[in-house]
Design goal:
With 640 residues, the chain is an alpha/beta fold. The protein is built from 18 helices and 32 strands. The strands form six sheets. Strands 16, 17, 18, 25, 26, 27, 28, 29 and 30 form a nine-stranded mixed sheet that branches. An eight-stranded mixed sheet has the order 6-7-5-4-8-9-11-10. Strands 20-13-12-24-32-31 form a six-stranded mixed sheet.
Length: 640
């Protein structure tokens, strides 16, 4: 018997082949016949009339499909293929929501999909983005954002409790209702109803008579299949949520025509680009003359997180951000993204002990991270080290300033640079942004997102005191001549990136100081010395002897940025709530990313874009709550 893995790993399916058909030992066949009655086309695509409905999706609109078992992803691939053939030519998004308690390993999935040549091109993309086998929610962005797959690895009922979406169509296998306990079946049907809109369609295979009665009692009505070719699917139309008194009706989504994003750092640029790809009118606003000029303007930045010893919600959020950002940056490989791998060095006694406990209590796939001894760490990084650490093969370093400029150059992103916002107010159903610009003294938008880093609290239209803080961070530009440059990122008390041709010379960036009580905007010798001494303590043989002792050359350069962080060191992302917990319509925050902005920004931009557009959320409820904006209000001190 296979032992239960430690978190966050999930147990993969045990695959066996019978007469050329792959089967799970516990879940039945994966490979349905590609022709005939049980093909995805006949079982789900045609009964839900998807070719016609896809063509009718509006500009910047979306269509949402949910299913109860991902298996080998054949239903998803069939839906994606149909979307490409019949979907609208304008910007719109197909969302596919699925869950799998025992996912296939990447190798097994590749073997199964090789038997489906009609999906070959789509299969290649799915395999390239297939998530590591760790529990929780995975968002895959495919086809340049026209297709988004939200894949939950874990229990089905947990998935429907955690995920936030409203489906336009359901693909169900009959066993979703096959339980001996009536309460369990009723709970599943209730969840389906809660995630459905009036008019949502549902196709289900292998349904028993008593299950049909349960669905009809919940508000679905049976429609006959159009032809014998559509069987064995049973087709229902969800027509009236009021027929189930325990189900709250879906809230209609207010149409959005314009969005203003304040702040052209890494978070703001990613969000603006994300929304523009979905077909929305976006204006990116910043006081600086160009994007990526403030804290996101460093020449290099390491892309990593520090995963907790305990696999709790904080660790799960960090892990989700890490896996999403690695795939996000892959498309920029050879430009601004350098996937060299990254070593989290066990550089001190306390860090060695932390990593030991981390390895004992957790199980991560090797493609995500693995502990390595000193000798292997030296081989991987090309550096002389004192110890080993945790190796992240999919991580590396980024040129954030260049990426910001590239994202902001999207032709659908309108830019208002050199434009400082002084006040936000709302009237006549619009947000009005007063600026200090003579050319654009006022801008208007339906929705506003504040992504202004440590300046964000100044822009929030509230008299509240907020629990944000600015932390000065100075990086040092280290010429290759002064140090033995590693091949991969090394991080611990500081990070050191491999030397690269930056500003006309071979430089590696050391970062960054953590100055809680300094507001000095210029680089200082003391901060350079602090970076050098910290690097020398971490990797003693990296620097020349005089540099290791803090004797700095006069030509040493660097840069200062101010990180925005929060009282609990967790980011803030989502619709703004006032001190009383009242959500303010059309106002969102995306800030407080601290020193891990390069890792968190892609996923949180995706999540906030989901909220703004009313599309399925990339994050489950348990993680979204950790990002809630209401927690940023300073509690009032009771006066005795």
């Amino acid at each position: 018997m296979t032992p239960t893995p430690k978190p966050p790993a999930v147990q993969p399916a045990e695959l066996q082949w019978r007469d050329g058909v792959p089967e799970s030992k516990h879940g039945g066949p994966y490979l349905l016949p590609t022709k005939g009655l049980e093909s995805p086309l006949n079982a789900h695509i045609n009964p839900n009339d998807l070719p016609t409905r896809f063509a009718e999706v509006s500009q910047a609109g979306s269509f949402v499909i949910a299913e109860n078992r991902f298996g080998a992803g054949l239903n998803f691939l069939a839906a994606w293929q149909t979307w490409q053939m019949f979907g609208p030519s304008h910007a719109a998004t197909l969302h596919f929501i699925s869950a799998e308690s025992s996912p296939l390993s990447p190798k097994d999935l590749e073997n199964v999909l090789s038997s489906c040549p009609e999906f070959h091109d789509f299969s290649e993309h799915l395999l390239a983005h297939y998530p590591p086998l760790v529990t929780g929610t995975h968002r895959l962005v495919l086809a340049d954002g026209r297709v988004r797959l939200t894949l939950f690895f874990g229990d089905l009922n947990t998935a429907w409790d955690e995920l936030c979406f409203l489906a336009d169509a359901w693909f169900l296998h009959g066993n979703v209702l096959a339980t001996h306990q009536e309460s369990g079946r009723d709970a599943t049907v209730k969840q389906i109803c809660q995630h459905s809109k009036p008019g949502t369609t549902l196709s289900i295979t292998s349904i028993a008579d008593n299950h049909r009665q349960v669905l009809e009692a919940a508000g679905f009505r049976l429609l006959p299949c159009s032809s014998a070719e559509d069987r064995p699917a049973t087709f229902y139309s969800y027509f009236d949520s009021a027929s189930d008194p325990n189900t709250e009706p879906a809230t209609p989504i207010k149409p959005v025509t314009s969005i203003a994003v304040i702040g052209a750092g890494i978070a703001g640029c990613m969000l603006a680009n994300n929304l523009a790809q979905r077909g929305y009118d976006v204006t990116l606003i910043d006081a600086a003359p160009e994007a990526g000029s403030a804290a996101s303007g460093n020449l290099q930045g390491a892309m990593y997180v520090k995963l907790g010893v305990e696999f709790n919600h904080q660790t799960q959020l960090a892990l989700s951000a890490l896996t999403f950002s690695q795939h996000y940056y892959d498309s920029y490989g050879g430009q601004f993204w350098h996937p060299t791998g990254l070593l989290q060095l066990a550089w001190s006694d306390s860090e060695r002990d932390r990593q030991r406990r981390f390895v004992e209590r957790n199980q991560y796939p090797r493609e995500l991270l693995q502990p390595v001894p000193k000798e292997e760490a030296e081989t991987l990084t090309g550096a002389r080290l004192e110890t080993g650490g945790l190796w992240f093969p999919g991580s590396g370093w980024l040129e954030p300033a260049k990426l910001c400029k590239s994202l902001a150059s999207n032709s659908c992103v309108h830019k208002a640079m050199g434009c400082s916002v002084s006040k936000l107010s709302t009237y006549d159903g619009k947000w009005h942004l007063s600026t200090t610009s003579a050319n654009k003294p006022e801008l208007t938008a339906d929705q506003v997102v504040i992504c202004a880093g440590h300046l964000s609290p100044q822009l929030i239209p509230s008299s509240s005191a907020f629990r944000f803080k600015a932390i000065r961070g100075q990086v040092t530009h280290l010429p290759e001549a002064f140090a033995a440059s590693p091949r991969a990122v090394i991080c611990g008390a500081r990070y050191l990136n491999p030397a690269h041709n930056l500003q006309g010379q071979q430089l590696g960036v050391i970062g960054a100081t953590f100055d809680l009580h300094s507001e000095e905007p210029e680089t200082t010798t003391e901060s350079h010395r602090e970076n050098m001494l910290a690097l020398s303590a971490m990797v003693p043989q990296m620097l020349q002897a005089d540099l290791a002792e803090g004797d700095l050359p006069k030509q040493l350069a660097g840069r200062v940025g101010f990180r925005c962080t929060t009282h609990d060191y967790q980011p803030v992302a989502g619709q703004y709530s006032d001190a009383q917990g009242q959500e303010i319509e059309g106002l969102y925050l995306l800030t407080g990313l601290g020193s891990k902005g390069l890792t968190y920004a892609p996923l949180l931009a995706e999540f906030v874009a989901d909220q703004i557009t009313g599309q399925p959320a990339a994050l489950p409820e348990s993680l979204a709550r950790r990002l809630a904006t209401r927690r940023m209000h300073q509690p009032k001190v009771a006066v005795s």
